């Protein structure tokens, strides 16, 4: 449950109200990560610096506007003529139009830069994922990887879109406003700035509370979603055990908890605009009151008061924005860091320099004293030696965890042996390129992985250039043609997202046809343990027989039938071959295998 809720809560973006006083997200190496993001942006550095230039200009224009307004007021007071007024209005309009235009342009270009940058990062990340070794995926949760590709990338994208512009604008505006204010009237500036400490502590008080409740809200939401997900997937069990009332009650508790945290999170964060508004009014009163007195004494002009009222607003807003932006940038950099961690993962070892690409193999396989361990401590496979002739069927038998899958993985070169050699047609597989080796192998696994596309395309995955006739030929040979043409769209039926939508047995038949189309010289089969109806089962057995004809096949076998007809049976236990031979000779030996066969009442050797 906790796993699930963590996964679900991960889908939601973080609360936007950070502000002063919240703890920023953890970033290990801010500078280096920023540099790497820059590495992707640098392609567009010219445009980027141009945009920064525009941001500066627009920030300066936003300072110029209020200043000119003050000047206009003074000018009109001194020389109250319509022409003066019109001239000042024309100049002011010009400034504001230019300001709006620059805002629009900087936004337009910055979004372009951000999207191109994230596009490159995403492509790099995804293509790198394709080159990572198998072990990488086995050690990680898919949900977590998905979150890096989607949430973290989205976070970077959103921040580049808006934060860069806002952050720069805020800094230029705050600095510029303070300089202008001090230049116009140091005393009035000092009085206006008295609200800054009040604002700081007020915001800190609020965000300290909102932070806690937003976190609770995320957690509660995650837990509630996790619970809903679990109840959806387990709805049959809930009904079978008549647990509806209990489920409703549990849901109500979670819902209540969410109501409480959301209520307080919203209430406290609702204070932020109220506080800002109040402080703005206070500063307005200070400027008008104190400024009025100063103006009466002739220390400043009325125009300066007008300018100050706008500047004070212009100055408190970015101050608050800055804290928000800084946290957003930190959280995006933290996201980028997680993306770069994957990009830094070592790729599958490159092929040895002298490795050859093979076109066709006969399929004579030799394991010569092979040792292998996943982790350093203990050997998973010990001293594995056997020889399979071209066209042989080798059945791998033994309890779960004995090492059957590992043998297959070594043969596919997902991992490298620690000691000993694996040879194909007398050639060490280390001297063969991985791609060409794998292209000679066909795989049919228990749970056939099919993709969300048409049946035709799924079949063609085995050989991309196969013609429609060849595809159908293979489907016929695999006993799949019959059921495919009965589907409403035939070969053009689109399978559901993970190949669902047809029965388990039918998926198996398609995956056999797919392997058949690839015409591999070496076959790897993981026999299904789950029961399939007898008719389909017969079709599968028959299809497999056709597929295995003349090909060297390794079968992780569960059915006595398959094992009985195998040319060679390797009985594995604790990573060692403990018995080796064919069905009859092994029975005669009266060892582990004979025991295994004797204890099975039915025709299935369910050894894992
Ligand atoms: P089988 O296919 O016979 O059930 P495996 O070859 O999958 O057995 O596993 C052999 C042993 O290696 C088991 O003890 C298993 O726990 C371990 N093992 C399998 N895969 C990994 C892995 N990716 N990392 C570490 N240990 C593994």
Write the layout of secondary structure elements.
Blueprint: H1 2-9, H2 30-41, H3 45-78, H4 82-130, H5 134-138, H6 142-184, H7 186-193, H8 195-233, H9 235-240, H10 244-296, H11 302-343, E1 365-372, E2 381-388, E3 393-397, H12 404-411, E4 419-424, E5 427-428, H13 434-439, E6 441-444, H14 455-460, H15 468-477, H16 481-486, H17 504-518, E7 522-526, H18 534-548, E8 552-556, H19 560-565, E9 568-573, E10 576-581, H20 583-589, H21 592-599
Parallel strand pairs: 3-8, 3-9, 6-7, 7-8
Antiparallel strand pairs: 1-2, 1-4, 4-5, 9-10
Bound molecules: adenosine-5'-diphosphate.
Adenosine-5'-diphosphate binds next to α5 and α12.
Describe this structure in words.
By secondary structure, this protein is an alpha/beta fold. It has a domain of 320 residues: ABC transporter type 1, transmembrane domain (ABC transporter transmembrane region fold, Up-down Bundle), CATH 1.20.1560.10. It is 63% helix and 9% strand. The chain has a 6-stranded mixed beta sheet with strand order 6-7-8-3-9-10, sandwiched between helices. Helix 17 packs parallel to helix 18. It starts with a helix and ends in a 9-residue tail after the last helix. Bound molecules: adenosine-5'-diphosphate. Adenosine-5'-diphosphate binds next to helix 5 and helix 12.
């Amino acid at each position: 449950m906790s796993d699930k809720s963590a996964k679900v809560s991960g889908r939601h973006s973080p609360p936007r109200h950070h502000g002063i006083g919240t703890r920023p997200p953890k970033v290990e190496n801010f500078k280096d990560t920023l540099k790497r993001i820059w590495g992707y942006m640098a392609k567009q550095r010219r445009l980027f610096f141009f945009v920064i230039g525009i941001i500066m200009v627009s920030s300066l224009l936003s300072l110029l506007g209020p200043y000119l307004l003050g000047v206009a007021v003074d000018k009109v007071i001194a020389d109250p003529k319509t022409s003066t007024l019109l001239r000042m209005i024309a100049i002011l309009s010009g400034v504001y139009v230019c300001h709006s235009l620059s805002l629009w342009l900087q936004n337009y270009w910055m979004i372009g830069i951000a999207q191109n940058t994230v596009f490159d990062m995403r492509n790099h990340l995804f293509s790198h994922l394709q080159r990572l070794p198998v072990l990488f995926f086995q050690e990680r949760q898919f949900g977590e990887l998905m979150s890096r590709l989607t949430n973290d990338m989205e976070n970077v994208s959103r921040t580049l879109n808006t934060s860069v512009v806002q952050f720069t604008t805020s800094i230029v505006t705050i600095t510029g406003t303070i300089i202008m204010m001090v230049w116009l009237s140091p005393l009035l500036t000092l009085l206006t700035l008295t609200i800054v400490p009040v604002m700081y502590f007020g915001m800190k008080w609020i965000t300290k509370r909102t932070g806690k409740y937003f976190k609770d809200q995320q957690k509660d939401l995650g837990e509630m979603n996790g619970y809903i997900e679990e109840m959806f997937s387990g709805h049959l069990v809930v009904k079978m055990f008549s647990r509806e009332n209990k489920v409703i009650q549990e849901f109500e508790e979670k819902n209540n908890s969410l109501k409480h945290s959301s209520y307080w999170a919203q209430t406290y964060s609702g204070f932020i605009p109220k506080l800002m508004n109040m402080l703005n009014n206070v500063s307005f009163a200070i400027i008008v009151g104190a400024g009025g007195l100063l103006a009466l004494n002739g220390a400043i002009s009325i125009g300066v008061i007008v300018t100050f009222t706008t500047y004070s607003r212009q100055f408190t807003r970015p101050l608050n924005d800055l804290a928000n932006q800084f946290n957003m940038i930190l959280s995006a950099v933290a996201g980028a860091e997680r993306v770069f961690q994957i990009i830094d993962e070592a790729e599958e070892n490159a092929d040895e320099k002298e490795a050859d690409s093979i076109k066709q193999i006969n399929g004579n396989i030799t394991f010569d004293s092979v040792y292998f361990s996943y982790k350093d401590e203990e050997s998973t496979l010990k001293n594995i030696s056997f020889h399979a002739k071209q066209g042989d069927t080798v059945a791998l038998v033994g309890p779960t965890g004995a090492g059957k899958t590992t043998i297959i993985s070594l043969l596919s070169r997902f991992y490298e042996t620690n000691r000993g050699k694996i040879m194909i047609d007398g050639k060490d597989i280390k001297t063969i390129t991985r791609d060409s080796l794998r292209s000679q192998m066909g795989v049919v696994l228990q749970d056939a992985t099919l993709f969300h596309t048409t049946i035709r395309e799924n079949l063609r995955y085995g050989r991309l250039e196969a013609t429609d006739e060849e595809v159908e030929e293979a489907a016929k040979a695999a006993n799949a043609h019959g059921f495919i043409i009965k589907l409403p769209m035939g070969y053009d039926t689109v399978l559901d997202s993970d190949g669902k939508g047809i029965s388990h047995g039918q998926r198996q038949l398609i995956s056999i046809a797919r392997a058949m189309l690839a015409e591999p010289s070496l076959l790897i089969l993981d026999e299904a343990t789950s029961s399939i109806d007898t008719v389909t089962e017969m079709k599968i057995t028959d299809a497999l027989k056709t597929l295995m004809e003349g090909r060297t096949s390794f079968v992780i076998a569960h059915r006595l039938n398959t094992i009985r007809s195998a040319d060679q049976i390797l009985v594995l236990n604790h990573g060692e071959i403990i018995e080796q031979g064919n069905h009859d000779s092994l029975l005669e030996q009266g060892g582990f295998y004979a025991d295994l066969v004797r204890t099975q009442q039915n025709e299935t050797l369910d050894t894992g």
